[in-house]
Amino acid sequence: MTAVFRFLSALLVTSTLAAGLMTFGAAAQNTDDPSVINPDEGAPGTMPELPIPPESGDEGPMVRPAPDADPEMPPEAFGGPLMEGEEEVDETMPEDGAASTDLAEPAEKQPETLETLFAELKKTGDETEAKRTARKIQRRWHESGSATIDLLMRRATQAMGHKENATVIDLLDQVLVLEPDYAEAWNRRATAHFANGDYGKSISDIEQTLAREPRHWGALMGLALILERTEQDKKALEVYGEVLDVYPALKSAQDAVGRLSEELTGPSI
């Protein structure tokens, strides 16, 4: 009797399991039933499948910075001010960063002044070496001696990088109230006015810059560029000549002199 009961119980369990499997299979095939979870759509608690990023070059349309409106504008116009975060290189160290082992090198170098740097710039014919000297001069131009002015100038530089010229001008107005003899602030404001297409105000600020630093080749380059754009090529040629008198190895000024000379007098035979 006990053996028969066990056999019937096993048979009943087997039948129940078979019926359950058949019901589940039918439900799985019915994809229209909203209560049925399609494993392809992701069950609760599982990570959804992420799209595979496209290969480089196949990203599709995306927003990119607009090209410069004036591609012919030389980078040295208005001095090409140092941008915030730009690496400052110790000009006294070799390029590989190692200490100099040259026994002929004096133990202490004489401090460089603007006068000595400009004298070096004037006599240097090598373009690379001239750029190094020019960078030293630019760093001197950026030394305001005031933490407040330095902060305002950094913010103006950031705004200039985002083409927020109204903000740039407002910040530089504040700088010039605090220090009206700071030539680089006048130069930066001339740059902002130029970017706005307000050549009159730009020239006015260039004049203020040159009144405080007549050798500011960036301001001179900006002035020459404005003169060219207002079809005053002869005057522009004279100003480019002034640039080369200060910075003879500046290639963009050399090219401008050659181009304008040819346009005004015709090609040399």
From TrEMBL:
Q: Which UniProt keywords apply?
A: Signal, TPR repeat
Protein's organism: Fulvimarina pelagi HTCC2506
**Which stretches does UniProt call biased (Acidic residues)?**
84-94
Q: Would you indicate the residue range of the signal peptide? A: 1-18
Quote the protein name from its UniProt record. Answer: Uncharacterized protein
The UniProt entry, under Pfam families, shows: TPR_16
Give me the TPR repeat coordinates as residue ranges.
183-216
In residue numbers, the region (Disordered) covers: 29-110
